[in-house]
Design brief:
The protein is of the alpha/beta class. 35% of the residues lie in helices and 16% in strands. α2 packs across α3, α5 runs parallel beside α7 and α6 runs parallel beside α7. The longest helix is centred in the C-terminal third of the chain and has 20 residues.
Length: 245
Amino acid sequence: MAISHRDSIRDVGELEEILSEPTQETIETMRSLDGDIIILGVGGKMGPTLARMAKRASDQAGVSRRVIGVSRFSTPGLQKKLQSWGVETHSCDLLDLKSYAHLPDAANVVYMAGMKFGSTGQQSLTWAMNTYLPGPVSQRYRDSRIAAFSTGNVYGLSPVRFGGSREEDPLRPVGEYALSCVGRERIFEHFSRTNNVKMSILRIYYSTELRYGVLMDLAQLVLAGKPVPLGWGTFVRSGSPMPLP
């Protein structure tokens, strides 16, 4: 993401414009990359911005490329918004295996589908989305390159003095959500090995943005005049522990 120095952001439209502005490195990547890009689970928090950035970077690189977003599109207006940005959309429930025959081929797959937080009471759906679904996706796109999003929750808790988990740390998942995410990684790894699929797994943490994230959570508490709980007294940002007020 390009860094824009602004005193203020007028609205969500301007925010989305800034967040989807590609860096020169992203443009060069899109210039050297071959084939179309399909984003499975594009309807989540990060998906629309990523899809728009990929399209903008491809256009600026002078590359004619389809950027395709796949989702159930439960958010009103999102599908039309993506289309207005030049992103092709396909409405699809990825748990419905019959729908896979209608999904377009693509050399590059970004896998963002999954059950995130809020899995309490929906444990079976969480396991279906996070652990089962990577199997049919890996089979459908066995001839593609796959970048699969995962989560830092697979590491478990880490002492503050360590500055956060690192890739080489052993996995210590706690709870069904984290366990199902380890399952997701293992299923993808299995099909990468057995089908010789070029694949990367990207473990991300709770993002910070003006519409969600740690800072947003704190701001909403302050705005509502509610106390800030100190049970979790520290969060990690850019590798440095930052104490809460």
